[in-house]
Amino acid sequence: MRNFLTTIIVILFVVSGLGRPFEAVGMMTSSQYTIYADSIDTGGIFSSGGIYELEDTIGESPVGSVTGGAYEVRGGYQYMSSSTLSILISASSVNLSVLNPTVVRTANSVVTVSTVSDSGYTLSIGGVSGTSMTAVADGAVTVGSAEYGMAASGADSLIVGDVAVTAPLSLASAATPVLNRQTTLTFKASMAWNTALNAAYTQNIVLVASANF
Amino acid sequence: MNFFCRLFLILFWAVVFFTPAAARAFTIGPVKFFITIDPGAAGQLAVNVKNDEAIKKIFNLSIIGLRQDENGRPVFMSDIDEAEKWTRPEMPEMTLAAGAEGKAVFNINVPREAAPKAHYLGLAVEEKSIGSAGSVGLTPKAIAIVILQVAGEAREKINIEKWQPSAGNFWDSRRVFNLQFFNAGNIDAPVSAQVRIKNFFGREAASQNLELGNNLLSESRRFIKQEIFLPKMWPGWYEARLQMTYGRTDQKLSANARILYFPKWIILLAAAVIILCIFFKLRKRKNTTPPKL
Q1: Is the preceding peptide bond at A168 cis, omega within 30 degrees of 0?
Q2: Which of residues 54-113 of B touch A (CB under 8 A)?
Q3: Cα distance from B95 to chain A (closest Cα, Å)?
Q4: Nearest to A59 by CA among A40, A32, A73, A78
Q5: What's this model's pTM, rounded to 2 decimal places?
Q6: Is-contact B23 A88, C-beta < 8 A?
Q7: Model confidence over B183-209: pLDDT tens digits?
Q8: In what order do the strands lie in the sheet with A63-67?
Q9: Contact A213 B143 (CB under 8 A)
């Protein structure tokens, strides 16, 4: 019985090492070069050294003769980074409910970004459509004023105070790879005492994540 | 095998199989492409898209123009680069089942008359979502960056538009300088710079490297606020000489700014000397004034 249990444990241990799903881009290494993307239409070899990393698509560098402030760029060269980028939004729709002149209504959504790109990422507003109230202009959505804006918080947040929801607008950025880096977006609205009570606003915001250059 | 060894293996196996993966909506990769194409030639780029959620998702595929802001971060806008018209996704949208992965292919056709130049694009993958009335809808979009160079002559040229100290006290040993420069060439360029502080006689009193960030894209502008630390120096006018190196051809560019430095101890010393002079002057006048009869 003891030997049977031991055998089962060892088998499970071995299988876990082979079956654990992992993110991978087909990568082979040797002492001289690393092939990052052998499935993309390049068929070339990635070589590194010096200042620039080149993938020789046709066996030649993309840079030709160099004189003064000019050099020749040759066609037919392609390089891609092997990194990935993930984006998750906790709530795809936030509702600020019925506004009240005595309180600022808020609603949150958390954006989570992960990337192994060595230049990090930037999260920004890429597009805004629909209808909204008067945008905040003084850095704070305050009680009794007809204003609408947003704030961002998190380790990489670039936003200070309450800002108007416009595009393009950088919200968060990091210069290094990140894992599950969260930025909380807080949407805020308030109404004035003389605001019409039967108005309704609907807005759609596109949140863009990309690697940095 | 003893009890503790078995326990370790059981726990290890449990952690490996039952550790929850981080929740993610969708993933794209690669996130950066660099491609050079001859005028009149074509190219193809493919972005892998993975639906990380437990339900089927539809993704819109599109092309968008790309610029840099003054801090070097990517800014995406439509209709800012002619290369947006050269690039098309093979399909406008793709449907992925839960956990499935697909390849979004983008074709590039460069016109024969295209001039040698670097173009900057984004290959966009946007999750199709439907908002509800009276709410704020949030749609995630991930973009892979493309640097597309049309083959030909690449010209590197950067102009320094501003190099000046910010307003401040002349006794401060920390001075903030404003540097603004623009890439007027047709290709992106790496940049680096150093500041040398020289005295009236041309001797170097201090030097400091500046952090200028990542490569500056063509037709992009960068603004840097840099703090320069002045060592203990004699009072007087100094010259802050900026030496910038840019491009793959290592072009050099320089600019000068003048700063006045008066350390606090000199001011106090001067004030003390003035007070003493006044004191002795008054005392002398008192001693030489004849008494009134």
Answers
A1: yes
A2: 64, 68-69, 71-77
A3: 17
A4: A78
A5: 0.77
A6: yes
A7: 999 999 999 999 998 887 888 888 899
A8: A63-67, A70-73, B152-155
A9: no
